């Protein structure tokens, strides 16, 4: 999504996690995992590092605040998003069917508990402009349906926010073929 928001043309190589990986991936990334970004002679493989690099390398439009205090606050919010909402999502991917209902409920309840943060009167997450926080949230919210996570009615602000994100041209352009297939409404 960061690439699309900044209008950066790239070649995206989708990798099936269960299938054959590109043979050069272990040379580019010591963990042989995705995502991996190759820009000239530089290979980056941590999603947060990739996003920060892209925001600095292609500064317009900026997705992170320029002043150090606001930037640090944004990084803390992103860290909380990763801990509170990405971690349960990753657990869903690894658990057998018996353990999934509890994680689904936990994730839905956690998002519902934070619904007031999505209902601030601002168009995007804590801002009227799209930011890196939105780019981090979008993949989680897009995958909820795929993983069977149903948000309760009190999370209406989260659902409304997600629909605003999903309607953005940059978001639609950022979806891989696999991601497009994750939702019945796509």
From TrEMBL:
List the InterPro entries: Glutathione-S-Trfase_C-like, Glutathione-S-Trfase_C_sf, Glutathione_S-Trfase, Glutathione_S-Trfase_N, GST_Omega/HSP26, Thioredoxin-like_sf
Q: Where does the source fall among the domains of life?
A: Bacteria
Q: List, for all copies, the residue spans of the domain called GST C-terminal.
A: 67-186
Any one GO CC term of this protein is: cytoplasm
Q: Where is the GST N-terminal domain?
A: 1-62
Q: What is this protein called?
A: Stringent starvation protein A
Higher taxonomy: Bacteria, Pseudomonadati, Pseudomonadota, Gammaproteobacteria, Chromatiales
